[in-house]
Every structure is written in C-alpha cells, then in structure tokens.
Amino acid sequence: MSIMDDTTTFDDKTLPAENFFANSGPINDPDDLVNLESRPPTETNHYAVLNISKFASIEEIKVAYRRWSEVFDPEKHGDPALKNSAAAKLLVIKEAFDVLSDPKQRAEYDRNGDNGVASKWDIGHKVKTPQETMDDFARLAKEQQQLELENLVRSRNDITIHVDATRVFEPYQPPPISPFGRTSTKKQRTPTIIDSLERADISQLYMKNSFLTQFGPRTQLILGGDMTSRSGTGRGNITGTIRHIYSDKLSLELGASMLSPRAAIVKGTYNVDPLTFVAGTAHLRGTRGPTPLVMTFGRRITRGTTGYMTYKTGDWAIGSWGPVFDERQNYSSMALGISSVDVKDSYQVEILTGVLRSNLLMDRTWTLDESTRIRVGSNLSSTTGLTVSVGGDRRITQHTRLGLAVEVALSGGIAFNLKVMRLGQSVTVPIMLSNGFSPKFAFWGAVVPVCTLTALDLGYIKPKRRRERAQKLQELRQLHAEFIANQKKEAEEAVNLLKESTARKTKQEQEKDGLVVVEAVYGNLNAGIIADVTIAVQALVNNSQLVMPGGHSKNHVLGFYDPCLGEKKQLRIRYEFQKSMHEAVLDDLEHVVLPVRAHRLA
C-alpha cells in the first residue's frame, strides 16, 4: 500500500522491514554498548592454551600437551619463583588436556562455549570476594526472571499519525475583508514559519495494540485491538487469534473480531517438503456470500530466496448469493514473485495482474554498516502510474531505530515518512507534502531527510554513543581491575618461563633463515594500548611456521593478556623470513598461518 493512500491500515513499504536484522547475525558497532558485558572475560580457553583448533583430533591434542608440558616442566627451572610459576602453568595445561581428551567433557565444553563456562549460573572468577559472587548471582537471577516475564507476555504497539501538510507550502493567503465587504487596505503581516506549520492537519490517527502469550511449545494466543479516528469520527475493534503448530508440516491460525463489523479468518500452512509450502487463507463472511480465498504456493530456490505464486478470489458470487460486481470491495488477482533475505541485503520482485489493476513491484534493501540500512523501491501500476520510494533507518541506541523516507508518485503527489521503532513499539508519521508531482518537492523531500539524518548522526548520536562507551569501559576496568592485573601478571610469568626455550628456538631459525619474530604486539593498535607478545608468538613457531587457530580471542594464549578490555583488538607481527622483512596485521579471532608471501615488505 502506498504512503499516499490515506486509509485505515497503513502498510509502510518505504522503510526496511523491522525484522530484517533478525536474520542478519550479530551487530558489531565499535561505538555501541551492545557487546560490552558487565562480567569479566573468562580466565582460560582450553583450545587457546594448547594452541590447537576446535576440530583438533585426539592425537593433535596429545602432541600439543606433551610439547607444552615439556616447555613448562618445573624441574627445568632452578629459581624457586620460576619453579612455582611453571607448576601453576602446568596445572592449567593439564586441565585443558583432561577436558579436551575426554569426548564427553569436550562435548559439554563445546556446547557451553569456548569460554569454558559450564552454565550461565557458573559465576564469578578466582579473584572475586564472596559478596561479589553473591551480587553476581542476584543480578543473574533478576535477568532470568525478567526474561521469563518478557517471554510470557510479549506486546506490540503501533501508532500511525497521518499528517496533511499540503497547505503548509501554499504561498497564497486571502486578503482580509472589511466589515463593509470591501478589501482592506491595511498592510498584511508577513507569514512566519509558525503560521505555515499551523496549516498542517492531522487527517487520520490509527492505533493498534496486541499481546502474545505462549500456551505450551506449539500454541500461541494473540489478543489485540485497533482504533481509527478520522474527521472527528472513529471506530475500533477487538480481535483474538490462536496459532497452533500441529506438526513439522502443518500449522493453523484462527482469528475473529469481537465487535461490529464481525469477521473471522482461517489460515493454514502445509510444508510439502523442506523446500515447498502451500498456504491458504479464508475470510469467513457468514451467509452474505461465498468465502473470499487467498492461496499461495511457494518454493525455496536457493538459500534465502523463495519464489511464490498467490491467487486471490476477492469477493465473488454464486448466482444471486453474494455481492454483485459493482458492489464488490475486493476483486480477484494473481501475483507471481520472488523474494530474498540475506545477511547483507534483501530484495523482492512481484508481477500482479487483476480485474481492476496490474502492477510491477520491485524493491531492494542494503545494509551499509552494522547499524544502517537503505531501501529503494518502485511500483509501476496500471491505475496510478509510477511510484518511487527511497528510505532508510539507523539504530541510534541499543533497542531504538529511527527511519526516514520519501515517496514520489508521478500521478499522486509526494509524501515524507518518519518512523521510530523500539522494542516492538513503533510510531509512524506519514506526511503528505504535495497532492501533485513537483520536481522541487521531490528534490527537497529527498535531500532534507538525508541531511537531517546525517547531521543528527554525526553531531549527536555518534558522539553520545562514544561518550557512553568510554564511560562504560572505564567502569568495567575499574570493576575488574584486580582481574586484569592478575591476568597481566600470569602472562608476564609465562613469558619469563618461555624466554630460555624461545631464545634457543630463535637462534635455530636464524641459522637456517627461517621465521624469526622481530616484534609482535597485541591490543588496540589505533589507540596504542598494546601488550608486547614477541616472545609468546616466537614460542609458537615450529619448523619455520607459525600457526594460531582462530575462533577464540588470542588473549587466552599463554603469554598473552587483554590490555584493553571491551575494545576491538588486533595482532601485529613483524617477522623476518629468508632474509626479508614481513608484516601482518590480524584480527583477534582470525586464523594465523605464517609465513605468507603477501606480507613481504617492499
């Protein structure tokens, strides 16, 4: 439905769908607070400790264990302090081996994540006091209770405010009339911006609210209501819907309105096979006429892409039973289309032909970055001509999105759309700017929203999020200062233990022009918050090759620590191989294999 259609139900097609990011994976915005946790990182990762892949075989696990056990053998160190440190590291290595060499323990460990936490309720870390552990337990219990309440009853609210602003831009103002019917010669006051804005009218207000409650694993109950106010009159209704999944193949939905005009609807979906489905909808109308039907056949073409065909009977009659042709509100149509939803973008193409109208619909949505998406759409109709819309939205806080759009119809005017979405609640304001096509309005209708959103983003949203993130990071580091200091101390102890064996390995590599790590730093390279991990990286070199499996943070590797808790980290390695200098910059979770010819410096 077009934004220019001033109808009761407003189907917004100018902005990306609200659930588009639901299939887009996690969002990683460097200025966002979403990924900052109030809990510290885990102390160890068993795969990182042994420097093996998550898919390592039992033989690879044994080889890694024997190698590190030999390196950290306490008997090789005469200094009592080093001997104690080696014994402590050997316990960490032994624990990693015991878990990963046992198939049952390893499977349990993998299911609960690489951080080694067996359950969400395993809280605290070694340097926490009993009171801190109790506080963590209370916080997690509160979070769990809140989650259960949200899952029990989920609400959704939609408010749509149609604004007619066509008179705002009218330059003409009737001259004042004197009491005797003559035109007054009194000088007219120059209209102000406030005077112009006062000409805008709210043409329609629509509100809809619904609550979803789960009854068992297969049944849902939805209670809702809607209200419409237009030109001083209003109406509303209350609806109820039951959804039930009978099996993996069949699901049914039954809905009905409780106030006049009463109506009922029955929907069903049947999965013929994993790639094919058939859906049907019946609008029950009692004895007034045959039931209007909607039937859809769809099949998945590729991953994320579905082709479909939909037939709508509209209002129809059997003899004298049912509305005559001229009194029908809905007419039959056939649609053929294809839709796709991917991590980065989505698109839809549909051709519809019907008794009253035919149209070609095309739209596409792009994800520009972790928080921003843009949609461009067009609709070529046999009745209204060409309509083009451009819109986009941006996540301005963790749970809030702001959307702006403009729609231009060559035969139906220009409209602007503003939308705010937060946690299932949305407020949409379609604003009619002009009843006819105007290049000037079309240009400013597109430029003003883009400039406004850009200025708001650069001047307020991003600076505010950076300040909040910096404050949150400072709080986290103060809260876990003891943990961070302990992690750094353990890394320094590991480096001291590795110095002697690493020096011998470096000499061997130099003698055969092999891989020699000149410098390795880990942390936030742009901010200069880094840790020197040269010795720890050189210790991982074997036969002129360096392999560091990815998939887990490198701060869990022996000799590493996290110098910038909560920030994006990278590993930069400058190394010499075959008398040539090389340099590699790698992301924290990236798999590392050196040497690589592309790393060679000119």
From TrEMBL:
The keyword Chaperone applies. SMART domains: DnaJ (SM00271). Residues 481-511 form a coiled coil. One of its GO terms (biological process) is cristae formation. SUPFAM superfamilies: Chaperone J-domain. Keywords: Chaperone, Coiled coil. GO terms for cellular component: mitochondrion. The keyword Coiled coil applies. This is J domain-containing protein.
